[in-house]
Amino acid sequence: QLQLVESGGGLVQPGGSLRLSCATSGFTLANYAIGWFRQAPGKEREGVSCITSSGGSTNYADSVKGRFTISRDNAKNTVYLQMNSLKPEDTAIYYCAANYRLCLLSGAEYNYWGQGTQVTVSS
Predict the structure, then answer these.
(1) What pLDDT sits at residue 43?
(2) Which residues contact 4 (CB under 8 A, 6 or more apart)?
């Protein structure tokens, strides 16, 4: 069974940092691109970042470019999202998802999703 489990969310003040983790199992992570997505109440799901299966290429939404960094450790079956300089508009549930060999910010292309972790940025 292919499974993804997010962790690391929480409550932080504006300007703070969090690191999200996506632990995977049931498949060979090295064969999949992984994307991070988020959805805030009343807003559409947004692609945040993705990373190719080898880790050789990444993509970021303009809204997070320069603040967020995606990385992966295939040996540990884990993908990370380092989030710095957090803003209130970053508040959302964050999901990781697997896409076979493609790095896309379109959620429609991903077949496997985690359950999400809540990130709240507020003073």
Answers:
(1) 95
(2) 22, 23, 24, 96, 97, 98, 112, 113, 114
Mean pLDDT confidence for 83-101: 95
Say if strands 68-73 and 78-83 run parallel, antiparallel, or are unpaired.
Answer: antiparallel
Cα–Cα distance measured from residue 76 to residue 72, given in angstroms and rounded to the nearest whole number = 9
Q: Please report which helix (H) or strand (E) contains residue 47, including its range.
A: strand 46-51
Please report where in the chains the tokens 């508040």 appear, as a residue: 91
Question: Tens digit of pLDDT for each residue in 30-49?
Answer: 999 999 999 999 999 999 99
Do residues 123 and 53 make contact, with C-beta atoms less than 8 angstroms apart?
Answer: no
pLDDT of residue 102: 86
Residues 6+ away with beta carbon under 8 Å from 56:
none
Q: Residue 62 region, left (φ>0) first, then alpha (ψ -120 to 50), else beta? A: alpha
Q: What's residue 101's pLDDT? A: 74
Specify burial of residue 41 (Cβ count, 10 A radius: 0-12, 13-18, 19+): exposed
